[in-house]
Each structure stands twice: as structure tokens, then as C-alpha cells.
Design a protein that fits this description.
The chain has about 120 residues and is mainly alpha-helical. It has 5 helices and 2 strands, in the order αββαααα. It has a two-stranded antiparallel ribbon with strand order 1-2. It starts with a helix and ends with a helix. The relative contact order is 0.11.
Length: about 120
């Protein structure tokens, strides 16, 4: 079973560059929305759900690690929803720098969640 799974992953990794090269027209759309923005919205909503779950787990256990992880999921949700809002309101020039700062804060929060006792 593991060999089949590894084989499938290897085939997908080999095929991935072909798919990337096949798209030379620009962005992929689902209806009138960019696929990238739709995926950002989905990952933002998933991160919001994970934030709620980890916050609930923190309130039950009072483990500081969960608080940092919860904060990271909240920041990831804000980033995903912020980037996807460009679907509805057009391009905002300040979103990319804010997104980069949020990435940095997310990584730090996960790091502190790992090293805290």
C-alpha cells in the first residue's frame, strides 16, 4: 500500500511542472473568480475553523502552546480572507506587503508554539 501511495505521489510530482508549463495565458478562473483567490478564501475559512477548535482546546487544557497555535491560525485566517477579498473589491496595493508581514507573524507564532513548554 505504501509503495502504491509513494508511486502516485511521484507521478504527481513529475506531472506538476507539465501542468504549470501548460498554463501560459495567465490566471485560471472558476466562473468569474480567480482560482487562486477562491483557494485563499477556502484556506482562510479552514484556518478560522482551526482557530476556533484550538482556542476551545486551549480553554480546556490551559496549555500555552495551543494559545500560540491558535493565534497562528487566526492570523492565517485573516491573511486568507484579506487576500481573497480582492475578488470582490478589486486589487489593493497594500495587501501583498501586509500578507508578507502576516506570513512572518504566522511562522513566529508556530515557532513559539513548538518551543514553549
Amino acid at each position: 500500500m505504501k509503495k502504491k501511495l509513494l508511486g502516485l505521489i511521484a507521478i504527481l510530482l513529475i506531472q506538476l511542472p507539465i501542468f504549470a508549463l501548460a498554463e501560459n495565458d495567465g490566471d485560471v478562473f472558476i466562473g468569474r473568480f480567480e482560482l487562486e483567490k477562491v483557494l485563499n478564501l477556502g484556506s482562510g475559512l479552514l484556518a478560522l475553523a482551526l482557530f476556533i477548535i484550538t482556542l476551545y482546546a486551549y480553554k480546556r487544557n490551559r496549555n500555552k502552546r495551543l494559545l500560540y497555535v491558535s493565534y497562528a491560525f487566526l492570523l492565517f485566517a485573516v491573511k486568507g480572507i484579506l487576500v481573497s477579498m480582492e475578488m470582490f473589491f478589486g486589487d489593493w496595493p497594500w495587501v501583498d506587503p501586509v500578507s508578507s508581514v502576516l506570513d512572518f507573524a504566522i511562522l513566529l507564532s508556530f515557532f513559539f508554539g513548538i518551543i514553549k513548554k
